[in-house]
Amino acid sequence: MTDNQTVQAYTDAWAQSIESVAELIAALPTDSWNRATECPGWSVRDVVSHIIAVESELLGDPRPIHALPRDLRHVTSEYARYIELPVDKRRCHTPVEVVSELEYTVIRRCRALRNAKYGPGDLVRWPAGPLSRDITYLQLLRNRAFDVWVHEQDLRRAVGLPGNLGSPAAQVTRDYLLEGLPRVVARLAGAPAGTTVALDVTGPLEFLRTVRVDANGRGAMEESVHLAPDLQLSMDWETYVRLACGRVRPEAVAGRLRVDGDGELAARVLAHFALTP
Fold it and tell me: Which domains are delineated in the chain?
């Protein structure tokens, strides 16, 4: 695909996922809104509020004026405080208000994306408080497709309504997460030169990838099948997402995770498997 086609693909993936979120929450009973998600300290309401907050900021809306409580145990950094503030501001909103705000935000954001004049390589601001930086427009769209889909799955697990696991944004997420795997194996887990680590994922998105560590200690992704890797991790797609996005620890999904080969290396790889803050 050309860069312009990729821009459209990321935009379409984001739109499909955020509209799926809107449909999901519109049908939720009131008592589902306070259910805990796998995001520490966040309920269903909070995850939806976070999605609204990021899209609103990308639209240029001012951040809310709000005094964030200092006793929120899951808020442990300035970045976390930045993310938490618009979420906490909306904790007094009713489900109807949150649903309406999301629907209106989606309409505005879709219009803004249709009218955007940015080229794929143009630099835009990624709003993340102390971690804010300039990234390309293409990266911004990819990040939003990834983030919204991952949070859609947070919501679906919390309310027991699985779905959209093989969607276009799920494929964006797969590619996004796999890019970080060579670094996990080679640098963070310290796998020695010549090591091969295979990842076998089944389910709606099924794939087999191998990371090989070269003589300089750098990891590279390969799509070829190695018959006897030093380590093979096998799991279903949803488990992979939960681990790679830091939603659960490996011991919590031990029954859905198979380890073949070097157990010590597996422990080091899994200890650094989460790629999201």
Answer: 3-162 (1.20.120.450), 180-271 (3.30.1050.10)
Whose structure tokens read 């498997």?
Answer: 273
Closest CA to 185 of 158, 218, 144: 218
Closest CA to 191 of 223, 222, 225, 215: 215
For the chain, give me the number of helices (H) and strands (E)? 9, 7
Question: Tens of pLDDT along 3-15?
Answer: 999 999 999 999 9
Q: What is the pLDDT of residue 213?
A: 97
Q: Which amino acid is at 114?
A: R
Residue 25 · residue 98 · CB < 8 Å: yes
Q: Is 1 exposed, middle or buried (0-12, 13-18, 19+ CB in 10 A)?
A: exposed
Is the pTM above the cut of 0.90? yes
